[in-house]
Amino acid sequence: MSDAGLKQAQQKMAAAGVGSTAIDVFSHHYKQVETGATGLIPEDSIAPVTDPASAESITVSEDQSRDALSKTVFIKLNGGLGTSMGLDRAKSLLEVREGKNFLDIVVAQVLAARAQWGVKLPLLLMDSFNTHDDTMEALSHHPELPVDGLPLDFLQSKEPKILAEDLAPVNWPQEPDLEWCPPGHGDIYASLYDSGLLARLLDLGYRYAAVSNSDNLGACPDAKLAGWFASTGADWASEVCTRTVNDKKGGHLATRKSDGRLILRDTAQTAEQDMKYFTDEHLHPYFNANNLWWNLVSLKAKLDEHHGVLELPLIRNQKTADPTDPTSPAVIQIESAMGAAVELFDDARVLLVGRDRFVPVKKTNELLLLRSDVYEIGDDGHLRARSAQIPGIDLGKTYSFVSEFDKRFPHPVGLLAADSLTVHGDWTFGRNVTVEGNVDLGPEGGTVADGEVLRGR
Asked: What is the third-level CATH fold of 2-357?
């Protein structure tokens, strides 16, 4: 059935307007799935990354920084709906604080960098079919944002979920949107290539790209890092942060023993018996921040060499057709990671950056922190921590969806003196609540009164 299944999938993608390169990438990975490939990376095939270059030791002149930033495009991955947080539109439109959402703050960062350094610094968003309309509406309030006739976004492709039983595209007429899935952010290469944007950026004189997630406000434009990357002449650089005991799930870079290449290993590429190594912050001391620097000339050459199809490692995700219905058919979602392209380049670097470059919001835990007094956001959009030690936050299932979180945290919470806050039950927090030390609220639930100070160990 698999040959017929692949043909059906290709036809379905073409009919939906998916670009030819993205279809070729899907076909490449489909054939790997057909042969039983798992995409797993065994622990004994890799060695940990040691002694990466450090952002703290970078020395570049202002002129070098300005010149590099003038040739840089700022790309944000903006295809996510934040469904795990109960959202149904672009996650970047979620309010962070003081009436500003992620997108407002990213725009402020870009405009501030332009003003400070006297550069154009185009902002490009990789939107999905689901986030494009809302995002473009939000950006219409910033007529000063487009430069050089460039669009503000390009579209991520989509691909059919395939049945685990026979690899045919799943048919789910009761909710046709569930027949599709995103191909992972590794799709950015095919999407840039198919859209013609990569070639256009080079024609306009841009030579570098700084790429990160739209929910990571720490990854703001940085002229010093741009100057360092340009000075290395490298094809690629991946930013990493020092791992702590709380960073067990994040992907990490490693060196492949067979050829000495840097590679990226994610959770889904790790066998169960190897998870004890994957999660060991001492064995693999740095995690991938998913902040990347590309040499656009090198990237275009690599894509041309492979006719747009970068052979990124397979990520094979086992799901059900309807994620909320475990009785729906078992499906395989074929994905790839953007950062995995590191292994394709001869001169790839690793740069150790401070934790301030990695402040993503994946759960309401992080949203509570961003809305608290632990952080401040200036007019330049830069996120600044007011404490060297960021408190640990662990909210229960009651707070998983933003709508329920907002009901229970209608006001910011004072966390500057907190070491940790763990909430087991259904608690609602009043105005001007402050947390000090390690606070653990039990399963009984209740209300924390206005002005209360919660003191723990």
From this structure: Spore Coat Polysaccharide Biosynthesis Protein SpsA; Chain A (3.90.550)
